[in-house]
Amino acid sequence: MEETRQVQGTWDLSTFKFRIEGEGINNMLKEMKEAKLLGNRCHQCGTVYLPANFYCRKCHIAIHEPAEISDHGEVMSYTVGYADVRGNPLDEPRVSLMVKLDGSDTWIMGAGEEMKPEDVHIGMRVKIKWAEHRVGNLQDMESFIPE
Amino acid sequence: MRNVAIIGIGYTPVFVSKRRDVCIPEMISEAVENAFQNSGLTPADIEAVIFGNMQTFEGVNLPHLWAADYIASLGKPVMRVATGGTTGMSAFHAAYYHIASGLHDVVMVVTYEKHSEGDAQVGLMGIITPEIMAMLAAGIDVTGQKGMGAIGGGSAGGISYQASSYLHHSGAGIEHIDAVAAMERRNAAKNPYAHLKDPEATAEKIAQTPLISWPIRFGHVCPTTDGATVCILASEEKAAKLADKAAWVWAVANCASDATTGNLIEGIITDPGEQRPATIAAKQAYERAGIEDPRKEIDYVEIYNGFAHQTLMFLERIGMCEVGEAHKLLEKGELEMSGRLPVNASGGVVSTNAIGTSALNRVTECALQIMGQAGEHQVEKEVHKALAHGWGGLMQYVTITILADKPKKL
Ligand SMILES: [Zn+2]
Question: How near does any CA of chain A get to the CA of B164, in Å?
């Protein structure tokens, strides 16, 4: 049987320009230097977005009401990674959490540290561990650790 | 709206990891020819063609156009549909609308995926690119550095949160995910068009496969498959002339939610396990089909389960049982081919996943069950009404189709 031909290639994500919700991301990043989180509240329905949407996805209206978000929150779901995206086993299992921070109606995801995989559970309280030297990017939030 | 029937189904002779012996259009043409053979129709009977496959996966552009001669579409209206995992059913819905509206009488749906020609993992990452928060949510590392953005992995990583949430809210355990995966691999062994078949599969065997991302293990994950599926639809008038047997479309519905929060609509549990679009689309489909109690009226269900827990989770989300009940039905054997509510007798997506075909195969498998043509994987009970479910997008788009053995009273 003759082999079909396969062309190997990669997609370079850096060739994409990400602009969507740029203002919201930028406001958040600026505040993160001070270890603070800034979202945006819809004046009509009260939904709080983090990062800040400047458009309420429920009401379909423009919104501009800054909302301070706590760096403490609750685990909504979690997983423990045993392999990387290509299926290679990891040396150490890696805890990842989906967290709803207090004051926000959306969730963010991040690494769980200082916790054993078997101790993690939905409803668990956690807080953000901030990087010591913050520069205003997403890496300023290092991980979630137990509250 | 007019009644619409399925009057022809065609598959490639096999669904396997690598079809090295054919190129993409050659592979598609096998399913087209098979549909013509099975139905006795000819290309002259087809008025329009709807074409579906996952965008970007094979790295080729406009496959619906350069395969035109292979899909019997020369000189005819052609439309391509791509909605991620639900592509096959969205293409089916488009064909339904063409006929129900009165525009055409006979329309052919052609769907395929030839994963071996591309890198599906790259494609799965591709769906993340438009929105930075979606990147965070799905855990794609955009910077190559450590930090909050670098979590979760690709599709399996993202889906683990869903499975984890499902277990928490339903009371089911990872052993139930093992058991449902085993059931479907055994079912797949009876389906000539399935990919991963294991007549001896048991929960214990599945439980021995390595954990990828808790609670998802290797044995819970769909394969990447090469294959094509074709479905021919007709108006009631044409179906009477052209077909001995038909399966009738009683309802189609679909619903999307928000990619980043998963479930902002009616915000109940804002995590990907809630899957409000499934509940909303199913409710609309039941209304359109005049179904008051789906648990009594639906005889057979095909769930789009790229990952094994989804069989149980979506049965609950579409109202076929209460939340927390699906794994109990599984324990009682009710979901088996011999059971009260047989599900995925085909082996499901977890056994065969040529993505463009996967959601259409849910529909065609329901049609085969209704027409009594499923062969070795025909369920024991009579199937008068069946429900096909499709799932995809980032994690937030659902399609539903309800079929029956008789035309709907209009
Ligand atoms: Zn609002």
Answer: 6
Q: Which residues contact B378 (CB under 8 A, 6 or more apart)?
A: B337, B345, B368, B369, B372
> In terms of pLDDT, which residue wins out, B202 or B272?
B202
C-alpha distances (whole Å) from B367 to each of B108, B132, B361 are: 15, 41, 9
The kind and range of the H/E element at A146 are strand A141-146
- Structure token digits, residue B230: 């074709």
Q: Which two tokens stand for residue B374?
A: 């499923």
Contact (CB<8Å) A11/B122: yes
Share of chain B above pLDDT 70, in %: 87
pLDDT at residue B149, rounded to an integer = 39
Provide the greatest CA pair distance for chain B: 64
The answer to whether A25 contacts B271, with C-beta atoms less than 8 Å apart, is no
User: Could you give the CA distance from residue B265 to residue B10 in angstroms, rounded to a whole number?
Assistant: 38
- The structure tokens listed for A33 are 């230097």
Name which of B152, B260, B264 is nearest A58 (Cβ-Cβ).
B264
Q: Best mutation site among B20, B155, B161 for testing chain A: the one with the most A CBs within 10 Å?
A: B161
Q: What is the rounded average pLDDT for all residues in chain B?
A: 89
Candidates A124, A122, A80; CA nearest to B165 is A122
Separation between Cα atoms, residue B200 and residue B347, nearest integer Å: 14
3-state helix, strand, coil in chain A (%, to 5): 15, 40, 50
Rounded Cα distance between B69 and B78, Å, is 12
Question: Confidence class of residue A13 from pLDDT cuts 50, 70 and 90?
Answer: low
Complete DSSP assignment for B91-129: HHHHHHHHHHTTS-SEEEEEEEEEGGGS-HHHHHHHTTT
Identify the pLDDT of residue B158. 67
Whole-angstrom distance, CA of residue B237 vs CA of residue B242: 9
| Residue B172 clears pLDDT 70, i.e. is over it | yes
In the beta sheet, which residues pair with residue A112? A95, A144
CA of A44 to the centre of ligand 1 (A): 5
CB count in 10 Å sphere of residue A1: 7
Residues of A within 8 A of B129 (CB-CB) are 13, 16, 18
A70: which DSSP letter? -
